[in-house]
Amino acid sequence: MYACSRMSAEPCMRAASLLKTLLQLNQTRILDVAFDEEGLVATVCPTTRVPRCGSCGCKARRVYDCRQRDWRHLDLGGMMLRLRYAVRRVRCRLCRITTERVPWAQHDSGFTTAFEDHTAWLAQRADRTTVSTLLRIAWRTVGRIIGRVADRLRPDDRLDGLTHIGVDELSYRRHHEYVTVVVDHQRGEVVWAHPGKNADTLKIFFAELGVERTAQLEAVTIDMSAAYIKAITEASPNAQIIFDRFHVQRLAHDALDEVRRRGA
Fold first, then answer.
1. Rounded to the nearest 5 degrees, what angle is found at the Cα of 231, between the Cα atoms of 227 and 233?
2. Which of 80, 165, 234, 260 is buried most, with the most CB atoms less than 10 Å from its CB?
3. pLDDT (tens digit, 9 = 90+) per residue, 151-173?
4. Residue ranges of the domains in the chain?
5. Could you tell me which residues are beta bridge partners of residue 111?
């Protein structure tokens, strides 16, 4: 463990300059660097003079008191790194009294944007327990971070411009629960998901898609589910229904096995 200590002024300035280069924090000044029991603490502040509302970004009309906060940043040299700043309470004409916007993190998040992006990237390639252990954060925190990153990066409306989609169900909780997932084949990404795997579940998707956008669907890939066929036929009769190759091949193999059994 590192004992609490303060660096002298000149080495501290050199360390702050080095950290600014390494961390590449935009619109941020590093004022001080210190060690504590958990790792490295960098005292920072925004370079902008006029504070803005943390929610909407409007210029603050009034500044009140301030309260010191820490934000977890990416580890540095194997040590936990936190950014520390006395964030100010401000009055916004739209959001009323709230805290100011900081350039290194989203509003009401205890993690920097870089840390959250890194967490979401790892979550695409490893299970949540592995990500939690590697980054030393709570298991549930990983899920909350993923939600914030998805909200920040996804388009305003993921259902716009759909013409070729795929529909399938996924099981979870030891196959006792199901969720219906809709994928945009052109973008190669999930655009909608909802608990359930019946016709009523898919009808919820078409209701959110709306009549005009549903009419633009050209092809829908499914797994030969009778429930999905019924929902698609009713909502978008002009869309071509395509059965995925895996299920078609499985039916062909089952038919061949049946022929072999009869001939034996």
1. 115
2. 165
3. 888 767 788 889 999 999 888 87
4. 1-104, 111-153, 164-263
5. 72
H helix runs in the chain, sequence order: 9-23, 113-123, 128-135, 139-153, 199-209, 211-215, 226-235, 245-263
Query: What percentage of the chain exceeds 70 in pLDDT?
Result: 92
| Residue 229, burial from CB neighbour count under 10 angstroms (0-12, 13-18, 19+) | middle
Domain 164-263 has CATH 3.30.420.10: yes
Res 246 pLDDT > 90: no
Closest of 99, 81, 98 to residue 38, by C-alpha: 81
> By 3-state DSSP, what share of the chain in percent is helix, strand and coil, each rounded to 5?
35, 35, 30
Token code pair at residue 125: 């390639």
Is pLDDT at 5 greater than 50 in this prediction? Answer: no
